[in-house]
Design goal:
475 residues; alpha/beta; Leucine Aminopeptidase, subunit E, domain 1; Aminopeptidase; 2 domains; 8-stranded mixed beta sheet; 6-stranded mixed beta sheet; 15 helices; 33% helix
Length: 475
């Protein structure tokens, strides 16, 4: 895959894509006068006006070479959003090979970042384990007058989304706590952020009892991964904290999942993959922000040493937890990670990202990420960031009465409130550990992994929320 923004061209392309807003048809300049006349006559004959999803396709000879041109209507200019352009480019170029030129007379459609980003998705397939795999040979050029490094940010974000997808799509025998840590170290060295990995004895000395309870039955030992990016050294006290759920495989523990529910449980580290992808984008774009991200990586396995329903477990924060269901394990790992990032890394706000509950899928399906927060401003800024990318977020309530559902008769809290309001009670459990600093919880169970193709997201990992978090951090 190749993308480049160009200011002029004399090349003949296999395919030409011309984008138009409704009522604003202006024939591109790079073809011969004879073919311009042909296009004008065809536009008049077919009454092409640039309405949304309107298409007009023609093939002709340009300097004795056969070329194909597709005129695409993008609808009214005042209704334009970048997501429409992203979807359109993906749809029209999916499966295309050879050289492509994209032109538009309107500057809003001459959008190198959006086209560079989506070009990364055109060739994405998680097929590394298939014999005889082939990648499409596709060269995309955009004719525009943009200065500087047009397309750089979009290209980096597209690559960061694909890094996230790859991590989630890898099977659990390839990505487990140790290999996830190794991969993160490599990303840090390559893209410019510090990585520290804490091993089991250090984790234990920090008092992360809830996290270690989940991890203890697994043959693969836990690894606590810390990523630090210091892009604003003049303001060292302002630090954004990211926490990603890193359960690299979840059997459900002794509260074992049904067999059908286990096949996709390699994806239970989706939150971890999202924060790694976000850190790569933040570091590569050299944002003037300080960001720390942590992952309590482990497997939730079954064995003689597994934690049990009925156990009472401690935590780094000092609160005790009655285990009601060992399949409510993600929140057990997250609370120690949240405590660590607040107390040891001194972050000034926390965003945790987790494939936490099936309840959020019941509520929102696969179309929106559920958000819970104790700070209105954080959610408003997240909304602004998400709209740029068409990544839907929806705020759900943290009602005080939900705390009653996680009260325990024998401990400070119990680790699940049952089926009613399950996404909210899980968030309420996490809230008990945020120590009154600004906090936001993103439940990505429905949006991080899908079971059929949806636009430019292939079946499997979507990489969703990387772009939104990046834009939130960028501000």
């Amino acid at each position: 895959m190749y993308f480049k923004n160009i200011n002029k061209t004399d090349e003949i392309y296999d395919k030409n894509i011309a984008l138009y807003f409704e009522g604003k048809i202006d024939i591109c300049e790079h073809i011969s006068e004879e073919n311009k006349l042909l296009l004008k006559k065809l536009i008049e004959k077919e009454n092409f006006s640039g309405k949304k999803e309107e298409r007009l396709e023609v093939s002709f000879l340009e300097e004795a070479q056969l070329t194909n041109m597709v005129l695409i209507g993008m609808g009214k200019e005042e209704s334009h959003v970048k997501e429409n352009l992203r979807k359109t480019i993906y749809e029209v170029l999916d499966g295309v090979k050879g050289s492509v030129l994209i032109t538009a007379s309107n500057e809003k459609l001459q959008d190198p970042d959006t086209i560079a980003e989506v070009s990364n998705y055109l060739n994405y397939n998680f097929n590394k384990y298939k014999a005889g795999k082939k990648e499409k040979d596709l060269k995309i050029e955009l004719l525009s007058s943009r200065e500087g490094e047009p397309g750089k940010e979009g290209n980096i974000l597209g690559q960061s989304v694909n890094i996230t997808r790859d991590l989630i799509n890898e099977p659990a025998n390839v990505i487990y706590p140790e290999t996830l840590a190794i991969h993160t170290i490599f990303m840090g060295q390559k893209y410019g952020f510090e990585v520290e990995v804490l091993h089991e004895n250090t984790i234990e000395s920090l008092g992360m009892k809830a996290y270690l309870a989940v991890a203890r039955a697994a043959e693969k030992k836990p690894k606590f991964i810390v990523m630090r990016y210091k892009g604003d050294p003049k303001n060292p006290e302002e630090i954004i904290g990211l926490v990603g759920k890193g359960v690299t495989y979840d059997t459900g523990g002794l509260s074992i999942k049904p067999s059908d529910g286990m096949a996709s449980m390699k994806s239970d580290m989706g939150g971890a993959a999202v924060v790694i992808g976000t850190m790569t984008a933040v570091a590569r774009m050299k944002l003037k922000k300080n960001v720390v991200a942590v992952i309590a990586a482990c497997e939730n396995s079954i064995g003689g040493n597994a934690y049990r329903p009925g156990d009472i477990i401690g935590s780094m924060a000092g609160k005790s937890i009655e285990v009601v269901n060992t399949d409510a394990e993600g929140r057990m790992t997250l609370i120690d990670a949240i405590t660590y990032i607040i107390r040891n890394e001194k972050v000034t706000e926390v965003i945790d990202v987790a494939t936490l509950t099936g309840g959020v899928i019941i509520a929102l399906g696969h179309d929106a990420t559920g958000v819970f927060t104790n700070t209105d401003k954080m959610y408003k800024n997240l909304q602004i960031a998400s709209k740029k990318w068409g990544e839907e977020v929806w705020r759900l309530p943290l009602l005080p009465q939900y705390k009653e559902l996680i009260k325990s008769d024998v401990a400070d809290l119990k680790n699940t409130g049952g089926k009613l309001a399950s996404a909210a009670t899980a968030a309420k459990f996490l809230e008990e550990f945020v120590e009154n600093i600004p906090w936001m919880h993103l439940d990505i169970a429905g949006t991080s992994f899908i079971f059929s193709e949806k636009g430019y997201s292939k079946m499997g990992a979507t990489g969703e929320t990387v772009r939104t978090l990046y834009s939130y951090i960028k501000g």
